[in-house]
Specification:
Elements (H helix, E strand, L loop, with lengths): L1 E3 L5 E7 L59 E8 L5 E10 L8 E2 L6 E7 L13 H7 L2 H9 L2 E7 L18 H20 L3 E6 L5 H12 L2 E6 L20 H5 L17 E11 L4 H9 L2 E5 H7 L1 H12 L5 E6 L21 H14 L4 E5 L10 H13 L2 E2 L2
Parallel strand pairs: 6-7, 6-8, 8-13, 9-10, 9-12, 10-11, 12-13
Antiparallel strand pairs: 1-2, 2-3, 3-4, 5-14
């Protein structure tokens, strides 16, 4: 840390260095100039050097100190804050970046020892629109593993994709729950990989694919830990059943199925349902519910934060309350459907709905996740490259995963 003090104004400068070294190792010479106070430049040579400098009788003492460095960061950052003699701080008035021109979101507050198991689930049978089966590839292509490793120090082990059926060679089956059997088979493959990752003390990150794949994530987590809590961030409720669904698309039934409310059609092999503790469910960003979903929500002990409520009170209190409600069970799962973000910022999604979260609201929601809760597993779903603009939605998915795992501006 570089500290600067004076009689009239005070400033605090925080320097983040590129690598760890011994306390007396030399660093690149640098300087800080505070023009409005006419303080001269002071070169810094060693990390533990403190040298008072006087410049005339009218100036206070200038002390430059370096007393703290993180162990692993990829950039140097100097932040200057104005501070008055009463110790009250204002917002930063100066910002200087040194080194590579990279996003400031590279700074992490999460422990570097977290390991993430990336599992691709390239499924599009659960939705009424083709293309989300390419979502895992789009997210990987946007630099997921590199971003986590280089910016956050998180090891991402990519297990690859589970085998997925394609519509052209698959029987549709009952039109009330189309392609249900092959969807359940894929979810079982996802569940086994998720369970294996948890037993290996890794954090499963499932890349969809349509939102049906979340059933596999939740079944896998419950097979290891028992029923857990879920924060479901989605424009839709996904609480239909084969009897209430107006479309027959299984991605709109997955949450009801995980709650054990999907009926006998969702019984599969040795699955133990419900995979969700009924009192530990929170939905955030909802702006499109079918009649059957609204009726079911009246009977559930779930917290529901619609876009109308987010508009009124803001995303921060809604996310904090959602996390508090869902926490405290056997595990905490976060399922993020990219269609919760407004199509202006996430055009390539399976089921776009206008009026969603803004770019900053989505990031803040994930930053709060990193601050408030220890999430045990993640889904990021419904990225559709066919509808996207230059992989904009895939890149946003990578950014949001990083924010949920601890990326910060400062």
């Amino acid at each position: 840390m570089v500290g600067i003090s004076g009689e009239r104004d005070q400033a605090e400068v925080r320097m983040v260095l590129t690598q760890a070294c011994n306390r007396r190792d030399a660093v690149d010479e640098g300087h800080v100039q505070i023009d409005h106070d006419r303080v001269g430049m002071q070169r810094v040579g060693e990390l533990d050097r403190v040298q008072p400098v006087r410049r005339g009788a009218d100036h206070g003492q200038l002390a430059l100190m370096l007393d703290q460095r993180p162990q692993r960061l990829d950039e140097r950052l100097v932040v200057i804050r104005q501070q008055h003699p009463n110790r009250s701080r204002t917002l930063p008035f100066g910002l200087v970046c040194q080194g590579p021109d990279v996003s400031l979101a590279a700074v992490s507050v999460q422990p570097a020892e977290r390991q993430v198991a990336v599992i691709g689930a390239p499924l599009d049978l659960g939705s009424g629109r083709r293309g989300v089966d390419m979502g895992p590839s789009a997210i990987r292509y946007a630099g997921l593993a590199e971003h986590l490793a280089e910016k956050l120090g998180i090891e991402a082990v990519d297990i690859g994709n589970v085998e997925a059926p394609v519509a052209e060679s698959t029987r549709e089956g009952d039109d009330r729950a189309r392609y249900l059997q092959p969807i359940l088979e894929l979810c079982d493959r996802v569940a086994r990989l998720v369970a294996e990752a948890r037993r290996g003390e890794r954090t499963p990150l499932v890349l969809g694919g349509d939102h049906s794949v979340a059933l596999g994530s939740l079944v896998g987590m419950a097979s290891v830990h028992g029923p857990g809590g879920v924060v479901w961030i989605d424009a839709h409720g996904d609480l239909n059943t084969p009897e209430t669904s107006p479309s027959g698309n299984v991605h709109g039934m997955v949450l009801a199925a995980a709650l054990g409310l999907g009926g006998e059609a969702f019984a599969y092999d040795e699955w133990v349902l419900p995979a969700i503790d009924a009192g530990k469910l929170a939905l955030v960003g909802v702006r499109s519910l079918d009649r059957g979903e609204r009726e079911l929500l009246k009977r559930l002990d779930a917290k529901v934060f619609t876009m109308s409520e987010i508009d009124r009170v803001g995303i921060e209190p809604c996310m904090r309350e959602a996390l508090e409600h869902a926490s405290g069970s056997a595990f905490l799962h976060l399922s993020f459907d990219m269609d919760v973000v407004d199509p202006e910022h996430a055009p390539g999604v399976g089921t776009p709905v206008r009026g969603g979260l803004s770019y900053r609201e989505a990031h803040l929601a994930m930053e709060i996740v990193a601050e408030e809760a220890s999430v045990d597993s993640f889904d990021v779903v419904e990225v559709n490259p066919i509808l996207d603009r230059e992989n904009e939605t895939g890149r946003l998915a990578v950014e949001l995963v990083a924010s949920a795992l601890g990326a910060r501006i400062l």
